[in-house]
User: Which sequence fits this backbone?
């Protein structure tokens, strides 16, 4: 139950951050946490939530968030071949790639939909994504670690009680 509550609170805070900082996708750090925890079910469910929120709230026709999250997955998995996923350099490089990828994904989808996009307008959201992803990821990881630790402790107490 704690897991569900933590994710629900995270999504609410992430959506609030996205309204506060236009162009930021604050759900991507949660997706990175899911991938780090290697829970396929959790990752798929969270990805569905992300796509539904982004497609429902976005101004572009359907498809841009699928491209965006596909790019995020690719960056994470390719980066994990070369770096430890817990390392700071991995997170910083991933965040920089996500910043560039955010602009490229939306520019590419915009071109496919014959939208006239000013590339200078894409720079601010890309920079915000690159700069804020490590901070959001760190804050979420710290709070998530406490929840996971408490759940583990509770499970151990439950096992001790049964014996």
Assistant:
């Amino acid at each position: 139950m704690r897991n569900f509550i933590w994710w629900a609170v995270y999504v609410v805070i992430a959506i609030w951050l996205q309204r506060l900082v236009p162009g930021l996708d604050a759900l991507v750090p949660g997706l990175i946490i899911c991938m780090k925890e290697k829970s396929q079910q959790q990752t798929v469910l969270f990805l569905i939530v992300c796509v539904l929120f982004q497609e429902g709230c976005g101004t572009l026709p359907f498809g841009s968030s699928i491209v965006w999250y596909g790019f995020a997955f690719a960056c994470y998995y390719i980066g994990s071949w070369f770096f430890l996923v817990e390392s700071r350099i991995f997170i910083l490089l991933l965040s920089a790639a996500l910043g560039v990828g955010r602009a490229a994904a939306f520019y590419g989808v915009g071109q496919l939909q014959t939208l006239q996009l000013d590339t200078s307008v894409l720079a601010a959201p890309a920079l915000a994504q690159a700069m804020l992803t490590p901070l959001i990821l760190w804050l979420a990881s710290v709070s998530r670690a406490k929840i996971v630790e408490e759940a583990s402790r509770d499970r151990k107490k439950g096992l001790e009680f049964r014996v």
In short: Confidence is low (pLDDT under 50) at residues 159-163.
